[in-house]
Amino acid sequence: MLDFVLFIILSVLESSALFYLGFKLFKIDLYSKEIIFAGIIMAFFSYVLRYDYQLAELDVLVQYTLIICFLWLLFRIHIFYAFIMTAIAYQSYLLIQSLLYLIIDFTGIYGLNYPTISTGIYILQILTATTTIIIANYVGKRRKGFDFIPDKPDEKITIGKREKIMFILTIPSIIFAMLMLFFAEHLFRFFFIIPLIYALLLFGYLYQSDKKNRGDDFEQFGS
Fold first, then answer.
1. Rounded Cα–Cα distance for residues 86 and 88 (Å)
2. With contact defined as beta carbons under 8 Å apart, do 10 and 16 qualify?
3. CA–CA separation, 12 vs 10, rounded Å?
4. Which residues contact 75 (CB under 8 A, 6 or more apart)?
5. How big is the CA angle at 98 (ends 97 and 99), to the nearest 5 degrees?
6. Cα 208 to Cα 56: distance, rounded to the nearest angstrom
């Protein structure tokens, strides 16, 4: 029972941190109740898939899909941009988590179990969520994010070259999110490749987002 409660609480914390980061990156208003609601649903799906069916890889895909659906249907983000927003927020979160995983595994903390609770896993979740919230808060205060995502799901959008590139990048981002579990379990000596891949994908997203943002600003300035 304790494992279940901790799993749900920490899963909600993680998903909330991920949504928080995504909203701050794209300068979108926060909806705390909706974020918690989405986090609870995601947590229950995750628990069933991981503990009842031992389908961790499928859980990653389901969580990714749920984030897109919540951004689109609950937070009213245009479906096209919901894909892009999910990919950027998810890759950012996994980059932070994979780096912290390497650190705490090196220190031996990740393997701790006290007495039957997977202490290391919970420490990783707390550290990742906390770090993500701190970074998101910094981005929000410094106004470092992007503002090219429309705030209405039915608004007509023009899909340009940069949007297409960012959308294409969502495909490998899903694949590598699932590969993270495989490397952690079977190819840990090569796990350092995972954060490098996340960093490259995230750089691609942020570079194209920055160019898109600057392009929009120039167009508005010249109009």
1. 6
2. no
3. 5
4. 28, 31, 34
5. 90
6. 31
217 to 51, 188, 212, 223: CA distances (angstroms): 48, 44, 9, 10
Q: How far apart are the C-alpha atoms of 172 and 46, rounded to whole Å?
A: 22
First to last CA, the chain: 60
Amino acid at 37: F
Token pair 């609950």 in the structure block, residue? 74
The model's confidence at residue 150, banded by pLDDT at 50, 70 and 90, is confident
User: At CB < 8 A and 24+ separation, what contacts does 117-125 make?
Assistant: 117/2, 117/3, 117/6, 122/6, 122/10, 124/97, 124/100, 125/10, 125/11, 125/13, 125/14
Task: Check residues 223 and 191 and name the one with the higher pLDDT.
Answer: 191
C-alpha 13/C-alpha 128 separation (Å) is 10
Give tens-digit pLDDT for 5-33. 999 999 999 999 999 999 999 999 899 99
